[in-house]
Design brief:
The structure is a single chain. It contains 9 helices and 9 strands. By secondary structure, the protein is α+β, with helices and mostly antiparallel strands. Strand 1 (59-74) and strand 2 (78-93) form a beta hairpin. Helix 3 (107-132) crosses helix 8. The radius of gyration is 27 Å and the shape is extended.
Length: 294
């Protein structure tokens, strides 16, 4: 063995060249611990085996815009020559698989139609979610009960279990368990039921690169339509990571996929891409649509 220096020779231990060093690392993080999945934690806590922790259904949207000529002066040396104006939006969801396209040259009316439709679809997805986790929700009620602070129109000092809820449904006070679930209200200090209700009621609404483009395109009208009292946003400049209300959570799917992911490349890689001779008029369904901007 040749040593590069006398110090290396002194440090060398005879007959220990084959010594195996074992490095050990903690199985769980010791400094940063990400938040646990709320649904999975509650399923484990209440020993529910008939459901997984995943929210099955979501909504997807995509805006298209045109350039509106403008000559707005900003400062001494800057002139805005054009403004992006949203003119259409396509919305679909994984539950009904219905595709709806809205077209309107008034951005505020376009957004109003979109938000109303998303609200209607969100109710259907919420019903699905409540039905999926009904056994967990009912077990939480029987374990801890619900008070008059959470159930509207009842005695504030009493605690109610599932037997009381079933009686209200039979008496016609509520049309169904979902109707009862929707009427409940929880403060900032949420119980297990309140935590689960938040997860089930906030339907994911995905866009692609929406945090950088779509949300900035519509934000002036969006906050006016859905209001600011019941909204929370997470901004990581220059994009919106999340905009959430009690009924939906607008997310940018590009934050959860590898960099460089594109719909066109996805279709080409996994489905072979468009087979039509005229790529601008794709009818096979395997090509990315083109919008006639002008």
């Amino acid at each position: 063995m040749v040593f590069v220096s006398a110090e290396k020779l002194k440090d060398h231990k005879k007959n220990q060249c084959e010594l195996v060093n074992i490095e050990s690392f903690p199985a769980e993080p010791t400094i940063y611990k990400p938040a646990q999945n709320t649904i999975r934690s509650l399923l484990t806590k209440y020993s529910i085996k008939d459901a997984d922790q995943y929210i099955d259904h979501f909504i997807v949207y995509d805006f298209e815009a045109i350039l509106k000529p403008t000559a707005t002066q900003h400062g001494e040396n800057t002139v805005f020559t054009n403004e992006h104006i949203p003119v259409s939006v396509l919305v679909t969801d994984s539950l009904t698989e219905e595709v709806r396209c809205f077209v309107n040259d008034d951005p505020k009316m376009l957004l109003t139609d979109m938000v109303k439709y998303i609200g209607d679809v969100s109710v259907k997805i919420q019903q699905y979610n409540v039905n999926k986790y009904k056994s967990l929700l009912q077990k939480i009620i029987n374990a801890h009960g619900l008070t008059g602070m959470e159930i509207p129109g009842v005695n504030l000092s009493k605690t109610y279990k599932m037997s009381g809820v079933e009686n209200w449904i039979e008496e016609g006070n509520y049309d169904s368990f979902f109707d009862f679930h929707s009427s409940l209200g929880f403060g900032k200090q949420r119980s297990d039921y309140g935590k689960l209700k938040q997860q089930l009621d906030q339907v994911p609404v995905f866009g692609f690169n929406s945090g950088r483009y779509d949300i900035n395109l519509i934000k002036s009208d969006l906050f006016a339509i859905i209001g600011t009292d019941n909204i929370k946003s997470v901004i990581k400049n220059p994009s919106y990571m999340c905009i959430a209300t009690s009924d939906m959570k607008m997310l940018d799917i590009s934050n959860y996929v590898p960099a460089g992911t594109s719909y066109d490349k996805y279709l080409t890689t996994y489905l072979g891409g468009c087979k039509c001779d005229d790529k601008t008029r794709c009818v096979c369904g395997l090509g990315k649509g083109l919008f006639p901007y002008e």
